[in-house]
Specification:
single chain; 254 residues; alpha/beta; Rossmann fold; two-stranded antiparallel sheet; disordered N terminus
Length: 254
């Protein structure tokens, strides 16, 4: 079952994604409008482009651009259709111009205009429900990261906690950052922090406000490496009560 739609990077290691691809493959042979639903980063746009590889893509929130596109093409991918300022007029224009549309939405929804226009609607589950896809995506993102940054370090899946808050979008970012940081130098790390702080500082309380940027990573790394507050306090040369106070102050990050 495991495969990748090369043109779109949509993976089908799980049964749910495999069924979604089967539906999309069927849609390639049918001249019908379809709505693909799911959270950000689950692969909606990937499958839409798989169905209509030559179609332009427009965001429904850009209403005027959507109407112009409908007036100049026979196929169109419309993303975030739930954000259209005038869904009634948009769907009427699609019918009038006889444009074939594959649309996406971030959540399941139904109304008279949507139900009338789209004869096929299906969901793509979040990656949290597609563990097989997560493992395959990590491997794919590793390959991309090595091509971009070099290095040979592989992610230990046993200890890796994938960030699935935005599905593949957040997972890819996490993998890329992991590879970017594996050979980072002190000066480069300081430059990153400097760039982050440049436009944020400006008040008399900023020293304490941003102190957690230095303390939290140090405490996290120390607790992970040494396993106890007592050992970490000794390694950092801190009184144990001082370390406890630091942990309490930064509890929202630890």
């Amino acid at each position: 079952m495991e495969q990748v739609v090369v043109a779109t990077n949509f993976v089908t290691a799980s049964e749910a994604s495999y069924q979604a691809l089967k539906t999309a493959t069927l849609l390639k042979t049918l001249n019908v409008n379809a709505l693909i639903m799911g959270d950000i980063g689950v692969g909606k746009k990937c499958l839409a482009s798989f169905v209509l590889p030559d179609a332009s893509i427009v965001d429904a929130s850009s209403f005027d651009e959507s109407l112009v596109s409908l007036d100049s093409c026979s196929e169109l991918i419309i993303t975030n259709i739930e954000n259209s300022p005038n869904l009634k007029r948009l769907t009427e224009t699609i019918k009038e111009k006889q444009v074939r549309v594959i649309a996406t939405s971030k959540h399941s929804f139904s109304n008279e205009f949507i139900d009338d226009l789209f004869s096929v609607k299906f969901d793509i589950p979040s990656l949290s429900k597609r563990s097989e896809d997560v493992e395959l995506l990590i491997k794919l993102f590793e390959t991309e990261a090595v091509a971009l940054f070099g290095g040979e370090q592989k992610i230990d899946l046993a200890s890796f906690r994938p960030d699935l808050s935005q599905n593949a979008k957040s997972l890819k970012r996490q993998v890329m950052i992991s590879y970017l940081h594996q050979d980072i130098q002190d000066i480069e790390l300081m430059q990153i922090i400097q760039n982050y702080l440049h436009d944020k500082i400006g008040s008399q309380s900023d020293y304490r406000k941003y102190l957690h940027l230095y303390e939290v990573p140090l405490i996290r790394a120390g607790l992970e490496r040494f396993g106890s507050q007592l050992q970490l306090a000794d390694k950092l040369g801190l009184n144990r009560n001082t370390l406890r106070k630091k942990i309490a102050e930064n509890k929202e990050y630890l």
